[in-house]
Amino acid sequence: MTTDKKIMLSESDIPTHYYNIAPDLPTPMEPPLHPGTKKPIGPEDLAPIFPMELIKQEVSQEPMIEIPDEVRDIYRLYRPSPLYRARHFEEMLDTPAKIYYKSEHVSPVGSHKLNTALMQAWANKQEGVKRLATETGAGQWGSALACACQLMGLECMVYMVRISYDQKPYRRVMMKTYGADIVPSPSKLTKAGRAILEKDPDSPGSLGIAISEAIEDAVGRDDTKYSLGSVLNHVLLHQTVIGQEAKKQMEIAGDYPDILIGCHGGGSNFGGIALPFLRDKIKGKKDLRVIAAEPGACPTLTKGPREYDFGDTAGTTPLMMMHTLGHGFVPPPVHAGGLRYHGSAPLVSHLLNEGLIEAEAYFQGEVFESAVKFAQSEGTIPAPETAHAVHSVVRHAERAKEEGTSPVILFNFSGHGHFDLSAYDAYFSGTMDPNA
Amino acid sequence: MTTDKKIMLSESDIPTHYYNIAPDLPTPMEPPLHPGTKKPIGPEDLAPIFPMELIKQEVSQEPMIEIPDEVRDIYRLYRPSPLYRARHFEEMLDTPAKIYYKSEHVSPVGSHKLNTALMQAWANKQEGVKRLATETGAGQWGSALACACQLMGLECMVYMVRISYDQKPYRRVMMKTYGADIVPSPSKLTKAGRAILEKDPDSPGSLGIAISEAIEDAVGRDDTKYSLGSVLNHVLLHQTVIGQEAKKQMEIAGDYPDILIGCHGGGSNFGGIALPFLRDKIKGKKDLRVIAAEPGACPTLTKGPREYDFGDTAGTTPLMMMHTLGHGFVPPPVHAGGLRYHGSAPLVSHLLNEGLIEAEAYFQGEVFESAVKFAQSEGTIPAPETAHAVHSVVRHAERAKEEGTSPVILFNFSGHGHFDLSAYDAYFSGTMDPNA
User: What is the ipTM of this complex?
Assistant: First the structure.
């Protein structure tokens, strides 16, 4: 027991292994299928774009996968991240619930994305890769990979959706500061980009196009592989450092969550905090509700069927069994850009299907209202994505008050909103559609 | 001794008192003078704009001044801040010097400014003040006071220099998120503002004008006082939590700084880290070099004479004995907006005069070159102000290599650069004047 606001761990408490939930799952996941043959893909199908170490992790049945020393060493720049008891927020909400949050915004890039970026950069470096190519929308993932590549001594090439490149220059400058090369997508550097530009020289671009460009770049060069910031098993695996630390910290706090909440887009920050706790649930050691909070404008888990679909718009990736709104679905331009993905992590989709987790969808007006409450009580301004988790917390805290219960709520504070203040501006000025 | 990258303290290590250097000074400071009578001012002269508690602190000879429980409680949201051993930066510089930095950027507003904002808000609240008025240039101080007022339950009115209001909307939105009222200065709300607007309806504003407006606002309303973010003794006093924590952390690290560096504008972050170490130097317990790093474009300490001058452009504040470029001096528009002040803290000026500290001036081209090196090795992007300290560290680390010495260098990482990426953009694109 402690009355501290922040529960800190020492650097020796940084997890030594990633937790792999695969062997603990009640039923196994469906395999990804080859887009041509529709048969399960093998490692060789992924070898042109990913290093073998990550391909192995993607399908591993090992319960714990060791974190390399060099990755753990760089984690020490910001890990273990603090876990907070949100006493000021509780007071503002006047709730009997106890609210805790794990602060992943303390990483140099402002979000949890660096956890997997570092491991991916390391795995590529080990196999002689000199350069990573990736796509980015609003820029959170691109910044994280750029930072990781710089710290690991790799080059980094980022295809940034053109409309973001033009409208959100600061994330671009951040990537440049970390030494990355950034081009607006569609670009003239790839066939995929040139094909789009021929039809529409003023194309604003899309994440789907940028993915196609980054993959084409990686496939076309011996020194380059491709890197993805969410959705895949190995990405969620790397994020389990969050939940493992949080479990230790909750133990120090003398509590265990009754309700665990993360925002959900591709699934990586949600998986990162949830998977280590879900182990307790699967093993029958603990009973807790685990909730994924997604945007009402892109309600993948709450409205999308679970079926085989492509990961990209163009339909070139393997088919994955996941909750999806269809790979042709274009989410409305809501401010939580990081949650605008037509699909979801196959692993999260599987957990939902197994009844191990729940999903909730919220609209941005109510989400920003809760985000402002959080900022005004705890000081830190949430990213629009994180704000979905914050709003879910508010709803459950209010329910606790109505019902006279006092649940322990833990949520993942995945990122700060310093690069998203234009969204807050839209909220205050009334130009934001609250029901999108 | 520890090999940790981050040296953390527990919440019980947050200082219980501010350290007041006044009684330890070898010779006393010259008093501020009344602008009309030119005689030393008394408490009653400051009473219309500051609460009595802060006026007492301004002239106190008590060696330690207790930090109120409520302030310490809110400090726990981000304090104690970590102290880092910059091993990656040392490797990049290939220096035998050992480099440490105290990370004040971890506060919710991204800089050390919140340390004094909270204490000032608390002292005003105790005396029944309902509302604080202040000025802000680039917005760092305004954000900190807005956050502090929100957390303490006060209203906050910020006069923001119009050119910043228009060009740097994100800081404005941040203040709004914390519930503050913000107007571009010159405004129509004050006589001072209206007088400027009559002559020049398109006036871009200046810090001097904004100060005049904020003081007029405070003087004209019973429920309102004025708040200043640097320069004054009580502001530097509040910042000594930085140096006190850093001393404990250096002890854990098993080192003591041979060279201590802070950037210098008004003097608050420099004083905050330096004063507790200077006590050791004054008492003859330790020998160390203490260096204030300022912009070559606004070389107050290195080029300005030490003489009585006004704190504001209009010449309405008390006269203070300080190094100054003259209250009519308009610094060139360099990117480290927080260091663009014609004067300096009277306390820092006094320390320089006593030979207890040194000053160095650097130009922004070299400063940003060093800032990028830091970001590429340690991950965190420095604010342009902080980058001056970083550059001084680089120079001393290089000198150590040339001379074959291995000094312990400690510097204050006063703020991150997330709101200043346009400055990095100017640096990369070549539109920045490197010699300004």
Answer: 0.96
